[in-house]
Amino acid sequence: MGSNGKEKGRATDEGPQRKVTLSAFWMGAFELSRDEFDIFYKDENTSDNSTVDAITKPSPQYIDFSLGMGKEGGYPVNSLSQYSALMYCRWLYNKTGDFYRLPTEAEWEKAARGTDGRKYPWGNSKPNNKQALYGAAYNSSAPVDSFADGASPYGVLDMAGNQWEWVSSAFKPYPYRSDDGRENQNSGPIRSTRGGGHDSSEEEITTTQRGRNLSRNPKAGHHNIGFRCASSKN
User: Fold this and answer.
1) Which residues contact 231 (CB under 8 A, 6 or more apart)?
2) Which of 13, 50, 60, 82 has the fewest C-beta atoms lying within 10 Å of its C-beta?
3) Among 3.40.50.300, 3.30.360.10, 3.90.1580.10, 1.10.1200.120, what is the CATH number of 1-234?
4) pLDDT tens digits for range 101-147
5) d(CA 10, CA 176)
6) pLDDT in tens, 48-79
7) HSE value, Cβ hemisphere, 13 Å, CA-based, for 101
8) 169 φ, ψ to 5°?
9) What is the pTM of this model?
């Protein structure tokens, strides 16, 4: 995991590189769409069994439903706090019985780059507009199934560009360790984002890029951050 420090354009917080062993997990093939989030939003606002109080950490004033932005249809939802993303995962768990959550930073990177250390999800070649949405105007977006040519080794789409993605991990220095407190959801205000967004440069949509300028207080939403779900069971 991480950069070896020899790649052009890599930042110091992307290393040192280290082998990380992960348990089996599942990753959502797409970023969550606005339509999917709207189902959750409507259910939470009409149900007598709201999951607001089921989230361990956030209090209701930080569940910013109003920030569920993004174009309607199959476009990625954005402007969500990390707490809202966690709440969606909990709601999906309640609906399906399967344990959905945000991916860890290590899981996200594994799903994006595979086992061969590729710079981009599709390989080491520079990106083009058939592989990712990047370098675009403010508030641009593309449907979540738009870039089949940019799929990761596992068939996961939009892991480069379109929207940055919340992960569960706190933004702490590498090497990554799951037992050093970074996966404690009750500690620290800063969480990581991965993958780059629609307005990122080609160097910001690499598989090792960490959203150092977009690693935010989890109570806040931003115009170019969305998320995808992961699961530890099938």
Assistant:
1) 25, 26, 98, 99, 100, 101
2) 60
3) 3.90.1580.10
4) 999 999 999 999 999 999 999 999 999 999 999 999 988 899 999 99
5) 17
6) 554 444 333 333 333 444 444 557 778 999 88
7) 17
8) -75, 140
9) 0.87
